[in-house]
Amino acid sequence: MGTRIMDDAARLLAQPPSYTDEPALHRALAHLRPHAPVSWVEAPGYRPFWAITKHADIMDIERQNDLFTNDPRPLLTIAAADDALRAQMEAGIGLSTLIHMDDPHHRDMRKIGADWFRPKAMRALKARCDELAKMYVGQMVERGSEVDFAQEIAVNYPLYVILSLLGLPESDFPRMLKLTQELFGGDDTELQRGGSTDDMLAVLLDFFTYFASLTASRREHPTEDLTSAIANATIDGQPLSDMDTASYYVIVASAGHDTTSAGIAGGLLELVRNPAELRRLQNDPSLMGTAVEEMIRCVTPVKEFMRTAQADTEVRGVPIAKGESVLLSYVSANRDEDVFDDPMRFDVGRDPNKHLSFGYGVHFCLGAALARMEMNSFFTELVPRIKDIELAGEPELSATTFVGGIKHLPIWYSLR
């Protein structure tokens, strides 16, 4: 296969704490893009992989979903976790979500929820998003002039939206929040349930148990919500397995919440750090659509996905052997100098904005329209009311190689 290109900077992509130091991470990625855009990574605890850091290469790989598959390694986890999750799935008790699947099963499963995220459904949800945005901005007024925006506002607003869509009782919201944070915070000492693979599997089992009970209830007593649609869905005339139903709920409840909360918290931080752009948005509310896209680009809540080559191939002239995995660094793609002018600048009017935060191709995020609408509703309510806003302490980011962002954002503010 020839000499492998290995660059030490690429090893940061396999170190969760790297994502808590964005300046250092972006310096490393800015080095990799021109010098080692396809770099072989051998990191302690992980199986080796190729780090892909250029926007164009990531799009090419995403287009070739038959050549580069999600199975058996859809995201970067330590080898022990890879093996444990695989064993659970083979035993029929693990979770296999849309991000784990390839066509045709992926296509069939995706269809089940697709109608709930189309424009007609989004219009129906718009009023609920607007109502909740008013409620949470109102809470900021009630709380006075200081708040940990990430934990008290950004986490809760999208949770209420997505769990309302699922039709879950409000009494279960705190439980879902805790499980979601434990699921995506498995590498973060503050958010994780524990540091072992068994702890992570226990979180997955708790999800499975909760939603298995919910499925039985919705099959016996169908309702007009997404949970019931999933519970009563069929493929080729057969109901979904317990693993498929639970997995579907988990990807909607967790990914549909945690990514959006990261986008909202990170988006506000960009406005605080760039007061001229905040004033520009206040003076021209028509920029809200492009502002939200720029927040999503800069935050990039989903840091990476993995794909595995099903045949010998190459990327940017670098040979990739059958069975080898590639890591698609969306964080890097969204700062690619060949695609974005002045990529480190936050620009509420950036257009075009070809970010890859929602992925690309057949695995493009099912809930992208909902995430955009939630963020638009929230900032449409908040931005015009801001008189003054500044940091009241240092923001803290979560340690992760998958999904995450700002976990603490203390701010001082004055609202109209």
UniProtKB/TrEMBL annotation:
The keyword Ion transport does not apply. Keywords: Cholesterol metabolism, Heme, Iron, Lipid degradation, Lipid metabolism, Metal-binding, Monooxygenase, Oxidoreductase, Steroid metabolism, Sterol metabolism. Its cofactor is heme. Signal peptide: none annotated. InterPro entries: Cyt_P450, Cyt_P450_B, Cyt_P450_CS, Cyt_P450_sf. One of its GO terms (biological process) is cholesterol catabolic process. Pfam families: p450. One of its GO terms (molecular function) is iron ion binding. Pathway: Steroid metabolism; cholesterol degradation. Belongs to the cytochrome P450 family. PANTHER family: BIOTIN BIOSYNTHESIS CYTOCHROME P450 (PTHR46696:SF4), P450, PUTATIVE (EUROFUNG)-RELATED (PTHR46696). This is Steroid C26-monooxygenase. It comes from Mycolicibacterium sphagni. The lineage of its organism: Bacteria, Bacillati, Actinomycetota, Actinomycetes, Mycobacteriales.
